[in-house]
Write a structure and sequence with these properties.
Helix content is 11%, strand content 15%. The termini are far apart.
């Protein structure tokens, strides 16, 4: 188990960053964009037609080889799930997220006492400990960090109702999806929707202009050229060709698939996934990149990009959206 950002071990975070409390949370301006969902019920969905496309990319090794895939019709959330929507789910069910639960130390011998407390990974750049070779130097395990307290104790959701919910582990996303009568997308479904269900969409590797990503040199300086330093309210950027917002950038999104670097075409039930960078850690596929993706690091602001994420871990840049199977059209009357 790791409790840090993708590809980072908890041991590295603890050794390099310590187990600090919350720094002063950044100011949050209550903002709503024209496409932001402002109710707390499960969000509006967009129909995605059936089709076939060449899946994958070639920027990073685990994105290929590209292969032809066929997709049945489904529906997908028009935006990422927001704090307000997740809060309603929690209020109605009493659900407690993974980040709000302590880790059983018997399952992970050797973890420092602070690391078994409830908490999550928070992005926190500090030039005093920065090592460009080690991503653990810009992630900190913060006891008490969760979807309710994004930076840890002392932070809250005031002004953030319509931002994407974060610090979400796979089980949390699955629980919300079941409550909403939906499910998580497969990696194939997610990528097809991110490509606007267009088999000719191609694989541009330039930094997108209509997405919340990092402008500047990561992780030293985010110039905020897209209007946001950090996550934006859901639905603030122009929708893709299907009418779906923020599939690229803003926050990473969980899929239903376990992660394996060779992208197998099928998985056994209960497959925990595998990532050579995180030996022995169950991992799933997250897609879309986040506001932390920049041209000089993490060029994963592309539909074909993918990343391994510890199944038990959220982080301050990991959220999700849901899908539903498109009902079959009624048969035409005979005669």
């Amino acid at each position: 188990m790791t409790r840090a950002g993708p590809g980072i071990s908890l041991a590295a975070v603890v050794a390099l960053a310590g187990l600090g409390g919350c720094t002063t949370p950044p100011p949050v301006t209550p903002a709503v964009c024209p496409a932001t969902p402002t109710t707390d019920g499960p969000g509006a969905m967009v129909s995605v037609p059936a089709g076939a496309f060449l899946m994958g990319d070639d920027v990073y090794a685990d994105e290929g080889p590209r292969r032809q895939e066929t997709v049945a019709a489904f529906r997908i959330d028009a935006t990422e799930v927001t704090n307000a929507q997740f809060a309603r789910f929690v209020a109605e069910t009493g659900y407690v997220t993974v980040a709000e639960q302590p880790v059983d130390p018997a399952l992970y011998p050797g973890l420092p006492a602070g690391a078994v407390q409830p908490g999550s990974a928070v992005f926190r750049f500090d030039d005093g400990r920065f090592d460009p070779r080690n991503a653990a130097t810009w992630w900190v395990f913060v006891p008490g960090a969760s979807w309710r307290h994004p930076e840890g104790p002392g932070s809250d959701l005031k002004g953030r109702d319509f931002l994407p919910v974060i610090h979400i582990a796979l089980a949390d996303a699955q629980a919300y999806a079941r409550w909403a009568g939906r499910r998580l997308p497969t990696e194939i479904e997610w990528e097809w929707a991110a490509r606007s269900a267009d088999p000719d969409a191609g694989n541009p590797d330039r930094q997108p202009t209509e997405a919340n990503t990092w402008q500047g040199v990561f992780p030293v300086l985010d110039e905020g050229g897209d209007g946001y330093k950090g996550a934006a309210p859901a639905g603030c950027f122009t929708a893709n060709g299907l009418g779906v917002h923020d599939m690229i950038g803003n926050v990473w999104e969980w899929t239903a698939d376990p992660y394996r670097p060779d992208r197998p075409t099928g998985f056994a039930s209960g497959d925990p996934g595998a990532d050579p960078r995180q030996p022995g850690v169950p991992v799933g596929v997250i897609k879309g990149g986040s506001y932390l993706c920049a041209p000089n690091y993490c060029m994963r602001y592309r539909p074909g990009a993918r990343q391994a994420q510890d199944l038990t871990l959220g982080a301050s840049h990991v959220g999700f959206r849901t899908v539903a199977t498109e009902p079959e059209a009624p048969a035409a009357p005979s005669g």
